[in-house]
Amino acid sequence: MSKKPYIVVLTGAGISKESGIPTFRDLNGLWRQYKLEEVATPWAWQHNRQAVLDFYNFRRRQLLQVEPNEAHKALARLEQHLPVKIITQNVDDLHERAGSKNVLHLHGELLKVRSEKNPSLVYPWTGDLHIGDTAEDGAQLRPHIVWFGEPVPAIEEAAREAAKADIFLIIGTSMQVYPAAGLVDLLRPEVPVYYVDPHPAPLQVSNPLHVYAEPATQVVPRLVNQWLDEYA
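^ that's the sequence the OP posted. Answer follows.
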């Protein structure tokens, strides 16, 4: 590969778990404690806003108590030397806090809120969100989150990025959540796929596949060092 490779990274809850943020589908994950239809759907927002707000207020407070880990930091270091795009299913800001600039959030951002009537009215938000907090259009503010049953506006950009990738790195995701899991199907056939997860799911791809059944904090810095030695 003569030119610097374009590295596209897909991250899921597993990378943030190592910073102390619970995942959703693990044995002790959030969906064992909450019913997703009661806190993460448009139906929930219409029928019990307080429960939805309580859930995201809890998650926002939790996020502010954790820090990026060595995997987040390694990706930020990689971006300083090679072209990198991070596509994350996570709603935390740990990639950004680690120093990554080119981050696309598929499922929204926990530290932002928006008008429930106008999705383009988005505001930074670090405190609790209450019923009666309104946007400039007078509408109630809601979490800036893509809930189950809602379209994923960023997926088209993510698809374009995946199609351009020279290397595709998957970190900490079950590859069960669509449409994000379908991004691997858009890769060119020669693009190598690196899959880092302590409990990797079976991945059906025809691309060259490298699976690392280890924590991201152990593997990602190694891969980053390898690629910097080879391409930077």
